[in-house]
Amino acid sequence: MGGRGDGQCPGGMVAAVRKYGSSVLLLLVGIAVLRVSLFGDLYLRYVQAGLRPYLIASGGLLALLGLVRSALTARTGWEDSRDADVHGRQDHCHAHTGAPRVAWLLTLPAVALLWFPPPALGSYSAAREEAARAEKFVVTFPALPAGDPVELSLAEFGSRAAYDSGYSLRDRTVRLTGFVTRDDDGTWYVTRLRVACCAADATAVKAEVRGVRAPEADTWVTVTGTWHPSGRLGSAAAWPPVLDATDARPIAEPADPYEER
């Protein structure tokens, strides 16, 4: 009972796990991609909204490939076992149990993505981004909309502060949204990451905040204040722009944490 003549390979469970390993990996990755792209807004941490259909299609295709491969593997195994004698079965089992167990570590990234999706890029990524500005970009910008405070992206605020020869930010109250980053000397910034395609090409935009106490790093805030001119337009001294703040209100992280380029 339970010997070699019962139609099972010695160590059959281990053999089965190794035999279906690639199928399970495809299925796990497909399900993980579908989870972040199909069931919520998690995909916005990694790519632009317009790429969602491609993520869904990719996840569905990977999951389907995993299922098809499992079915083909099961069919091949059934056909082999039906025709093999005991000696042949032992050779067959021996031939299919040599895969190294360490290969199963490849499933860990897929499982991690499925159960513990990483957060959006934060202060560490922004701190590594070097700002480079040149005087040749100094131009006159269109007038801002009437009424204060005016809601601006950090990219637009920074561009107007550093390059607008018409000084459209002067005497205007603005509202900026981003997460908190800090320097070692205590200076803090409201920061946002911009993406053209996905998180891999993210670049940082930020504004120094003065006049209010800094929240914890990576806290999302909406900051209200007025532009504090510093440095000659287009020069390194004009970047990052400075905001004299009157209020910094913590908020929940937006569903889409990035600004588009």
TrEMBL record:
- Residues forming the DUF1980 domain are 170-258
Q: Which domain of life is it from?
A: Bacteria
Cited InterPro entries: DUF1980, DUF1980_C, UPF0703_membrane_permease
Q: What parts of the sequence cross the membrane?
A: 20-39, 51-72
For this UniProt record, the keywords arranged alphabetically read as follows: Membrane, Transmembrane, Transmembrane helix
Known PANTHER family for this protein?
Answer: UPF0703 PROTEIN YCGQ
NCBIfam families the record matches: TIGR03943 family putative permease subunit
* Protein name per its UniProtKB record: Membrane protein
**What organism is recorded for this protein?**
Streptomyces griseoflavus Tu4000
